[in-house]
Design a protein that fits this description.
By secondary structure, the protein is an alpha/beta fold. It contains 13 helices and 8 strands.
Length: 327
């Protein structure tokens, strides 16, 4: 049975990255940024519930830090479940540009794509310690509930490897929402699972079987994507948005900051973060003030905020109100 949302071919170009703000933009006021947040709520780009609390979050900052707080909030990009589903579907659909590429009758190209969708195995990326809270589970369910992939095609990494060893090569699609450093995928790729009295990893199978591997994600940092392409050369990435290093609020050329604030922004973020009790662990902790691996992003989804996002947006303590409340 053809999957309703994946039945068409997509020969469009890759989605462009999110637009960066102009480097010479004027300073914003509190009223302006709260007005913007209010508009996003009315337009239902932000949730109509109290899940996001911009006014309470701004109140965490001292008056001398107000300009920085306003531009931090202005840089924050939040994506509702509806937008996430659409971007994920687009990333998945973009695989048709690879699977059904080349010349030939349209009916042949369409048949190749439909066969690929019907035969593929969908699996997910897990952390260094596998956890049911890993975001890949959410996107595996999206494949079933939103894209119409059969549940029998959606397997854990361990079961995917066993199926490939038992039944032979099939396309394998890893799904996730966000690629930060790329380490999480590389760990999943290289992790060995018990199989037929020995152990196998996706990496080892790729060296002995002609298995096409794909990784579908809605966001990736350029450093994470580059790391995966280098460490896992047989994996084809399909990304809705790839973020270059300037998306970090800690980057000296980050255009989310007006010129006047750019040189001092990182120091102010650190000072405020430490005052809130956020640890300074040189990027080694998911709670580090710079974000995990010091990626310093301002990115959030309705289902959660990536560890690579600045902790200042999600930190909760007796003296700090997070921007995103618990669901």
């Amino acid at each position: 049975m053809l999957k309703a949302r994946l039945s068409k071919l997509d020969f469009s170009t890759q989605m462009p990255p999110l637009a960066l703000n102009s480097p010479d933009r004027p300073l914003l006021s509190v009223d302006e940024i709260l007005g913007k947040c209010s508009y996003f709520t009315r337009a239902q780009l932000w949730p109509i519930s109290n899940q996001l609390a911009p006014r309470a979050w701004l109140a965490n900052f001292r008056s001398s830090e107000e300009e920085y707080a306003v531009h931090l909030l202005n840089a924050f990009s939040y994506f509702s479940s509806t937008l996430v589903r659409q971007m994920f579907a687009s990333s998945f659909q973009n695989l048709s540009r690879t699977i059904a590429s080349g010349s030939g009758p349209f009916i042949t190209l369409a048949s190749n794509w439909h066969r690929f969708v019907d035969d593929c195995i969908v699996t997910y990326v897990t952390g260094e310690v596998e956890s049911p809270t890993d975001s890949g589970f959410i996107f595996a369910r999206l494949c079933r509930d939103y894209l119409g992939i059969e549940e029998s095609q959606i397997l854990s990494p361990a079961d995917a490897i066993k199926t490939l060893v038992r039944s032979g090569p099939r396309p394998v699609i890893f799904v996730d929402d966000f690629i930060g450093s790329g380490n999480q995928f590389i760990t999943t790729w290289q992790r060995a699972y018990p199989c037929n009295g020995s152990s196998q990893s996706f990496e080892s199978l790729a060296s002995i079987l002609p298995i096409p591997f794909f990784y579908v994600s809605i966001f990736a940092t350029a450093v994470g994507a580059s790391s995966i392409r280098s460490s896992c050369p047989g994996v084809h990435l399909s990304l809705a948005n790839e973020l270059d290093e300037r998306y970090s609020l800690l980057h000296p050329d980050c255009p989310f900051w007006p010129q006047r604030l750019r040189a001092t922004a990182a120091n102010v973020i650190k000072e405020v973060s430490l005052r809130a009790g956020i640890p300074d662990e040189n990027g080694a902790s998911v709670d580090d003030w710079q974000g995990f691996h010091k990626l310093g992003l301002a990115l959030g989804f309705e289902h959660g905020i990536p560890d690579a996002t600045l902790a200042i947006f999600r930190w909760r303590s007796h003296n700090w109100v997070p921007l995103r409340r618990q669901s």
